[in-house]
Design brief:
Blueprint (H helix, E strand, L loop, with lengths): L1 H7 L7 E2 L25 H19 L3 H10 E2 L4 H12 L4 H10 L8 H14 L4 H10 L8 H16 L2 H11 L5 H13 L4 H10 L8 H13 L7 H11 L3 H12 L5 H10 L8 H14 L4 H6 L8 H17 L9 H6 L2 H10 L5 H16 L2
Helix pairs in contact: 1-12, 2-3, 5-7, 7-9, 8-9, 10-12, 12-13, 14-16, 18-21
């Protein structure tokens, strides 16, 4: 089984956009210049354009100075005609000034798009696809990088495919927003087909698409290998745990996996036990290394749980320490100190209870002390969440 895990990780005009090295900015900054003449512009001319653009971002779009300076390094212009025309176009299509400003914050090059040739085709496509005005504005405000994608080669096939999966334009919009600029229809389609061929129910594929779309950005050869190795580990394709295991391996590199294995080993877990626990509850390896250390330490050294309990109920390892484990344990200690419960109270039952049942069975039932207990519980949760 360990070999299978190791195999999984073995894959592994007047306006211009200034070229910046990958180490200096985001991916949208690596676009090629519009004109070769940009390369020979004098530093003084570039500085003049950057200064004008910076003032525009501050005065017209309400940017803070630092953000304006950063944006003006990437998108420069000497006159307001182009950005004004873009803003006017967007206003005429229902976008508010606040939405336009947010759009530019996320993707400054949108200010230099040709309204008719670049912006309009995308708006018309989404309208013709049945998106409401509200969904359309929400999508493009959140992911203005979409304006740089081809309708025919990228947007249409991706949108239509996602819509056929979800059967709902609102869910499709949510997925498009999370895919953002990393739209790769070939990977998406191939990876969905791999899951279908493996026997994964459509409902489980849709849930994975909805909650972790970046899994489908994985290179199709690597994705296929992950699916085969997860099957070989004994996960059933018909179960939800199958797609959770795929999510774990597709979103975690070998170094991170090793760090989490070492974190469990420090508390006495053997490698075989960790892998067995992963099969039962893949979430135990999807939480951060820091959370693994904090939760196991609290459960074992503070609450006194035996390691065998965690192996039988690995869901404990993914519970929130701040919102659930620590506040409930404080309630238990308070009840015990006041003689309201016996020390043989089942702490596991207390931790696993729903919030509604916990309040009913451990707080509200103690009528005279209920208000103070609830206040104590709520206060601790708030304090821990703020840390």
């Amino acid at each position: 089984m360990l070999n299978l895990v190791c195999k999984i990780f073995s894959h592994n005009g007047r306006s211009s956009i200034v070229r910046i090295s990958p180490t200096e900015g985001l991916c949208f900054l690596q676009l090629a210049p519009f004109s070769s003449s940009i390369a020979v512009e004098s530093s003084s001319a570039t500085a003049r354009k950057a200064s004008f653009a910076c003032s525009y971002f501050i005065n017209e779009l309400g940017f803070a100075q630092e953000r304006a300076l950063r944006a003006s390094r990437y998108v420069n212009f000497e006159t307001p005609e182009k950005p004004d025309s873009v803003r006017s176009f967007l206003r005429n299509h229902g976008f508010t000034e606040s939405q336009i400003s947010n759009m530019v914050r996320r993707f400054p090059p949108v200010l230099l798009c040709d309204p008719e040739k670049t912006l309009l085709p995308k708006i018309e496509f989404f309208k013709s696809s049945g998106l409401s005005q509200e969904d359309l504005i929400d999508l493009l405000t959140a992911t203005p990088q979409i304006f740089w994608n081809s309708v025919e080669n990228k947007l249409a096939p991706t949108f239509d495919f996602l819509n056929s999966m979800f059967g709902s334009s609102s869910n499709t919009v949510m997925a498009m927003k999370t895919f953002q600029r990393n739209l790769n229809f070939e990977h998406l389609q191939c990876n969905v087909r791999v899951l279908r061929d493996a026997g994964v129910p459509k409902s489980n594929i849709v849930n994975l698409l909805k909650h972790c779309p970046r899994v489908f950005h994985t290179d199709k050869e690597k994705f296929g290998k992950i699916v085969e190795d997860v099957k070989a580990m004994g996960f059933s394709p018909s179960k939800v745990m199958f797609v959770l295991a795929i999510k774990a391996f597709a979103t975690m590199n070998k170094v991170t996996w090793s760090q989490k294995m070492e974190a469990y080993k420090k508390f006495g877990f053997s490698e075989a036990e960790i892998l067995e626990t992963f099969e039962k509850h893949p979430w135990c390896m999807m939480v951060s290394t820091e959370k693994i250390v904090a939760v196991v330490d609290f459960l074992v050294n503070k609450m006194g749980f035996e390691r065998s309990v965690l192996l039988k109920r690995p869901v404990l390892l993914s519970l929130s320490l701040k919102k659930r484990i620590a506040p409930r344990y404080l309630v238990y200690q308070t009840l015990l100190a006041n003689g309201l419960v016996k020390d043989d109270l089942n702490l596991l039952t207390m931790l696993m209870a729903s919030e509604e049942k916990f309040l009913k069975n451990y707080i509200e039932c103690h009528t005279s002390e209920a208000s103070e207990l609830l206040k104590l519980y709520t206060k601790l949760r708030c304090r821990l969440e703020c840390t």
